[in-house]
Amino acid sequence: MARITGVDLPKQKRIVIGLTYIYGIGLSSAKDICEKAKVDENTRVNQLSEEEVKRIRTIIQNEYKVEGSLKAEINMNIKRLMDINSNRGYRHHRGLPVHGQRTKTNAHTRKGRKRLVGGKKK
């Protein structure tokens, strides 16, 4: 089993698909990593040698920001937007859609459950 940046890659999947299980690596960057490490994309994860895993690991550590450091950077960017009181920061703070979507309908995922106001029985 290959363990790269704290993530266990699935054994039976191709290495290109397995690398996408790491937060911050998509399909195109996984293909680039395989090309730089000189690993065939169709190789299964359990068929990789230790040297190939080591080459992939060093490329990811040197050239890509993944997992914890990437999540920390994203959270810092959101916090910065909230600190400078920008419109995007305000919408992050209030839990509303950020990129101009409508909120009268279809924003239930971002807004959460409907809150009932009043409704006292007499």
Strand coverage percent: under 5%
Please give the CATH architecture of the largest domain.
Orthogonal Bundle
Decide which structural class fits the backbone.
mainly alpha
Distance, first to last CA? 64 Å
What sequence of helices (H) and strands (E) makes up the elements?
Answer: EEHHHHHH
Please tell me the total number of domains.
Answer: 2
- Give the integer mean of the pLDDT values: 90
Major sheet size, sense and barrel closure: 2 strands, antiparallel
Bin the helical content: 40-55%
Radius of gyration: 21 Å
Number of helices: 6
3D shape: elongated
What multimeric state do the chains show?
A: single chain
Might you state the CATH topology name of the largest domain? Helicase, Ruva Protein, domain 3
> What is the CATH level 1 assignment of the largest domain?
Mainly Alpha
Low-confidence stretches: none
Query: What topology, given as strand order, has the largest sheet?
Result: 1-2
Query: How many runs of DSSP E, i.e. beta strands?
Result: 2
